[in-house]
Amino acid sequence: MKKLNLRDIRKSKQKNLQILTCYDYQTARMLNETDLDMILVGDSLGNVMLGYETTIEVSLTEMEIFSSAVRRGAPDKFLIVDMPFGSYSTIAQGIHSATKLFQKTRAEAIKLEGAFPYQLKLIERLTQTGIPVMGHIGLTPQSVHQLGGYYTHGKTENSAERLMKEAKALEAAGAFSVVLEMVEENLAIEISNALSIPTIGIGSGKKTDGQVLVINDLLKLGPNTPPKFCTPLADLYQVKKDLVNGYLNNQRK
Predict the structure, then answer these.
(1) Exactly one of 181, 184, 185, 190 is catalytic; which is it?
(2) CATH for 169
(3) Does residue 228 belong to any structural domain of this protein?
(4) 159, 153 in Cβ contact below 8 A?
(5) 181 among known catalytic residues
(6) What percent of the chain has pLDDT above 90?
(7) DSSP conformation class of 138
(8) What is the pTM of this model?
(9) How many independent structural domains does the chain possess?
(10) Is 229 exposed, middle or buried (0-12, 13-18, 19+ CB in 10 A)?
(11) Which residue, 107, 208, 212, 236, has fewest beta-carbon neighbours within 10 Å?
(12) 85 CB contacts (<8 Å, ≥6 apart)?
């Protein structure tokens, strides 16, 4: 499969782009051999790989290490890397962090959460320097404490109006795509129709321009129950446990 570039992605409205998260070399090697469009190294690696309670604990160094491993495993996939919490609290810090992450990981793009004025200015500056940026609105996990938990966004008129404004502002700032996480389904459709850049949904219905899922949820690689918007294709956690127990039982005979 031909590796996508930004021109391909910008032309991919309503083409059902498919993105999966990935955090390690071996899984990246496997995904590199599939028809997957893009890989996201999300800061969700803090929960999935490191056992942190939230993504807030993830550091820039940890994002560099895991993202570099994924890059080595999947050289033929368009790679997006999350900017972790606290790495872009100011424009100057954001430019420094994004440049370092972009250079060290050899990713094609970075992703950051939110659409406050300084974040929009940061996106403008980054794109001007040649670093493509994916936006992210709705449920923004790095702000989970400020938001008051995990829930669907855009259910009220004020919330819906704010999200539409944020999406348009991200596009105007230069974002090449916008993730809509846990956005009310009809509003996600409206936002998708209002933008000329692709929207990528997660828990926001199936009518966005693409979807992103955590591969560990999709394959149920861990003990936790996946979110309700993700139906696992298998229960590989149980399969692996059964295989190990079977091996141990055979060894003890």
Answers:
(1) 181
(2) 3.20.20.60
(3) no
(4) yes
(5) yes
(6) 89
(7) E
(8) 0.94
(9) 1
(10) middle
(11) 236
(12) 43, 55, 56, 57, 58, 142
